[in-house]
Fold this sequence. Notes:
Interacts with translational regulator CsrA and flagellin(s). There is one protein chain. The chain is mainly beta. The chain contains three helices and eleven strands. The strands form two sheets. Strands 3, 4, 5, 6, 7, 8, 9, 10 and 11 form a nine-stranded antiparallel beta sheet that branches. Strands 1-2 form a two-stranded antiparallel sheet. Strand 4 (33-38) and strand 5 (44-49) form a beta hairpin.
Amino acid sequence: MIIETLSWGKLEVTEEQVYHFNKGIPGFDEETDFALIAMEDTPFWYLQSTKEKELSFLLGDPFAFYPSYEFELPDDETEELEIQSDIIVRCIITLKDQVDKSTINLLAPIVLNPGNRKGKQVVLHKSSYLTKHTLLSEKSVEDGKGGD
């Protein structure tokens, strides 16, 4: 399948890369199909709308930045995504002009079921996570390299 992107122009993606979001992503309810595009040798991905070339999200592997990141997926979300075993968890990154000010949203991860290619942004209601955590890893913060 060929999709159009703002960053790369026309791009070929496989069916296995396309995930269906029944209710879209909050704020973008009309867009339901997105391609997950890996940025080779990095902990980053793009989630690109298959229809709107202007709509994409930079995603990060939360475990690369916060190794102790964990949450319990609510039963209704597990059922909606029809999760049996494997899942992929990514979080939306907000880039800032100063890269060290960029943030990752650990409160509302993107949960993907690679088995049926369903996805959803899940808000963790009973969580101490925030929508804006620094991209500095826990280790950097513990080592005193977190800086303000």
